[in-house]
Write a structure and sequence with these properties.
The protein is an alpha/beta fold and about 475 residues long. It has helices spanning about 30-40, 50-55, 65-70, 80-90, 95-105, 175-185, 205-210, 230-235, 245-255, 275-285, 305-320, 335-340, 340-355, 385-395, 465-470; strands at about 15, 45-50, 120-125, 125, 130-135, 140, 190-195, 225-230, 260-265, 290-300, 320-330, 365-370, 375-380, 410-415, 425-430. It has three domains: about 15-100, no CATH class; about 110-305, TIM Barrel; about 375-470, no CATH class. The longest helix is centred in the N-terminal third of the chain and has 14 residues, at about 95-105. It is globular.
Length: about 475
């Protein structure tokens, strides 16, 4: 790993408190400025000078994808919510505004998919509030000093980490519980250090969290993951920051200790890979022996276009990054503004997937991180697609109200709370407007999905059982 030779650039955060002092503020329509003032009262707003100067095309605002990605938008709040917040800003007390903001936040499902109710593990009877353990092999760890980001994504499903609401924040100040928990759970092979963004921490602090994981007593922890958007939002962290070289030396130490270090990078649009500083950050990280994987949700107004995804994957592969996941926007925060119907998500994924080489087809999706696990939409098919016209036509009245050309979703579990469900398939009724797992309904007129049934090992319907479903 070679030392950086670039001139250091000072990080400057920009939020509601200082955005009006930026030259770009004067380029914005007055209505847009008002939107920023109102929506940022409820949902977190932070960008930085690097983003504003290098990634946003101000001639395209408000339609520029990165502007949509980091600046509050009017549609992120319901019309009545927006109007009431605006009225209390200009004519109410601070206390009444605070009460309203809190209620709106609670209505936005701040911790979806059982994060608070089912994902928090226990140690000797104590809940570990800085941890999540949803999947057998992987523990998520939230270091206290890493619960912010260099900039906030407007779609972020962890927005509740960034607002000052008691009881909504995951954070742990030490590693003693982490080490003890991992010793008690030898089935855990992966630790994901997440946030927020762990890369906002100084290397000396990050080291205190990572070094204990390299102990021989934790040899079963083979993979250390760091979830970060710094590669896109502040690549200087790995190139010119005062401790950038120290950070990369830490990465080298992890690899030298025989652990696999995976930088789980969040890229939302191909423009984030264009600046030379961003590419140099990638080169330097890869030179340590760490692997960079690319993941992001499919977001309306930002990347709901097959070519954006194909370009992101192609460029990433060329730079040495492994495409990993296309996620579906979670059911939290401003989901109604950003969500893409599952039927459209399948179209976008297939069009992008079919236009890239095999090296980029490691990207799995569209995937929903729902309560039971990571549910992927494999496709949309009909009974005629499966069995051919001859077999379908022979069903006759036995097929009931199911028409052979009616579509349905084919889904599977990439990951699951119950490991027995991983890799199994199930079928959901087709609805062009459905955008999340909880909105799916079983296909073929069934009342429940097979994995929801009690007392039967929660097995999922295999593909070959479609005929049985229709006939019975």
């Amino acid at each position: 790993m070679q030392s950086a030779t670039r001139t250091a650039v000072r990080y400057q955060a920009i939020g509601r408190h200082n955005v009006a002092a930026t030259p770009e503020w004067k380029l914005m329509d007055p209505d847009l400025r008002g939107v920023v003032e109102v929506v940022s009262q409820v949902l977190p707003f932070r960008t930085n000078r690097y983003l504003m100067e290098n990634l946003i095309d101000w001639s395209r605002v408000p339609d520029d994808p990165i502007f949509q990605l980091v600046f509050p938008q009017r549609g992120m709040l319901a019309a009545d919510q927006y109007g009431e917040v605006e009225r209390r800003i200009h004519g109410g007390s601070k206390e009444s505004l605070a009460r309203l903001v809190r209620q709106i936040r609670l209505d936005l499902n701040p911790h979806p998919a059982g994060q608070l109710t089912h994902n928090v593990p226990t140690l000797e009877g104590r809940p570990l509030w800085g941890f999540q353990h949803k999947y057998r092999e992987t523990v998520l760890f939230f270091p206290f000093q890493g619960q912010t980001c260099h900039a906030y994504c407007t779609y972020c499903f962890r927005w509740a980490q960034f607002v000052d609401m008691e009881g909504l924040k995951f954070a742990s100040k030490g590693t003693e519980d982490l080490v003890a928990y991992l010793k008690a759970h030898p089935e855990v092979t992966d630790v994901l250090i997440t946030g927020g963004d762990p890369m906002v921490m100084r290397t000396s602090v990050l080291r205190r969290y990572i070094e204990p994981l390299l102990s021989p007593e934790l040899a079963h922890v083979q993979n250390i993951r760091i979830g970060t958007k710094a590669v896109a939002y502040w690549p200087h962290r790995f190139v010119t920051d005062p401790d950038a070289d120290d950070c990369l030396r830490l990465f080298e130490e992890v690899v030298a200790a025989g652990r696999h270090l995976a930088i789980m990078s969040h890229y939302s649009h191909p423009i984030e890979l264009e600046p030379e500083i961003a590419r140099e950050a990638i080169r330097r990280i890869r030179a340590t022996g760490a692997q960079i994987r690319m993941q992001t949700p499919l977001i309306r107004h930002v990347n709901d276009d097959p070519e954006a995804w194909a370009s992101l994957w192609r460029t990433g592969v060329r730079l040495g990054i492994v495409p990993y996941y296309m996620f579906v926007e979670r059911d939290t925060g401003a989901r109604n503004y950003f969500e893409v119907p599952l039927a459209r998500a399948v179209e976008i994924y297939r069009a992008a997937y079919s236009s890239v080489s095999g090296l980029a087809r490691s990207a799995q999706g569209p995937s929903m991180s729902a309560f039971p696990g990571k549910v992927r939409i494999l496709g949309i098919i009909t009974l005629r697609d499966i069995m051919g016209s001859g077999m379908v036509d022979s069903f006759g009245p036995a097929a009931g109200a199911i028409h052979p050309d009616d579509p349905f979703f084919v889904c599977d579990f990439i990951q699951a709370r119950d490991p027995a469900l991983v890799g199994t398939m199930f079928f959901a009724a087709y609805d062009p407007q459905v955008a999340w797992f909880d909105q799916l309904r079983p296909a073929f007129g069934r009342e429940k999905f097979d994995f929801e049934r009690q007392g039967d090992r929660e097995r999922i319907l295999p593909l070959q059982s479609v005929t049985e479903c229709v006939l019975n």
